[in-house]
Input
Amino acid sequence: MVSCRSCRSELKLTLIDLGSSPIANNLIPSTQSMEEMSCFPLCAKTCENCSLVQLSEELPRETLFRSDYVYHSSYSSSWLEHSRSYVTKMVKFLNLSENDLVVEVASNDGYLLQFFADSKVQVLGIEPAAGVANLAIAKNIPTMIEFFGVTTAKKLTKNPKPKLIIGNNVLAHVPDLHDFIEGFSILVADEGIITFEFPHLLNLLKNNQFDTIYHEHYSYLSVTALLPLMARYKLKIINVEKLPTHGGSLRVFIAKNESNWATDRSVQIMLKEEAQYDPRNKKIYESFQKNILNLKSNLVNELLRGKESKKRIAAYGAAAKGVTLLNYCGIKSDLIDYVVDLNPNKQGNFLPGCQIPIVGSDTLVTNPPDILLILAWNLSNEIKSQLLNQLNGGMKMLRAIPNVEYF
Ligand code: DWN
Output
């Protein structure tokens, strides 16, 4: 990419260059496989015009969201709870009933739409990764297996227009933002609402969340960058909510410009807050780069110290962000024996690049570590509550984000 995927300005400013890294969710079945060899540049640039942060190189979406896509939304109980409470809120807010249609784009395994279906609201999922989409279909969640954009939106114009369209953690995953947003503007009812949730760039910058930079995430989002993109398709952001999920996310509410929905003051408040941490500001991006280098050296030194004093070290959560962290820091299976993940589709594989085997939680009992590096730091509380026995037995939990520390 030489130009911004939103405003098309030339991209000159580097926020951070993480070298090259393998595709985070393409786990490898064996350390000998050819796929293990493939690494691609991982460099985030900032658009000096519209402030959108984005990867400088773009991999084809078909390479990333394959039929065997391993991220299943239903493996976190706190994420399911978050989804359930959103549904309760939206059913009340929009007075949704069996006559209304709710569409979710990137509906994964039906983790969210199942709660709307329980409330008797009509639902439709759109999900390109066939494996997870078929799990939703098996739960009776009607799901179209395709990438969303103008073509899909036009196919659906014969249906009643959805009163609500949802895009949770999908905006970052879209190479062609114009086609995607135009699709929403075609599909949504005149007085309908669109909600998007996405990890907030502000937290990435403030809390050193550089590990959320990987090829699947083409963009890193803020209200500042989204406003002009929405305006181009006659859409307005009417409300912004802060969420604790994924290390601090935003939920934005969007409506048609010509609708009766009024814009809440939360939008202006957020723009002011973002201006304090603008990625175009030299002071901000230079200190971010310095922090990431410090973090790398602190983490490697801490693990080496552990190894020297004969501690057994393992990791928890074969999260996509863990692949960025470990590969950027050059941490491999010589330092970390294994990584635990509850998702059976991940177990038996290896993290790409660093070649660490993924195992089930029983290994924590059969081969207990002294130090457990939590890669899914966004789910720390949920994970900690499962590991009380091991923690009482002396195991220590370590995290790298926002800083390297035991907790
Ligand atoms: O945008 C994305 C975000 C929203 O989710 C995707 N591109 C992919 C994914 O990112 P991630 O892989 O970094 O997500 P998580 O949710 O941090 O992954 C956590 C991993 O840990 C999952 O594989 C499930 C696993 N897990 C576990 O083994 N035991 C999770 C919990 C809560 C547990 O108790």
About this structure: Residues 13-57 form one domain. The two ends are 40 Å apart (CA to CA). The longest helix spans residues 282-308.
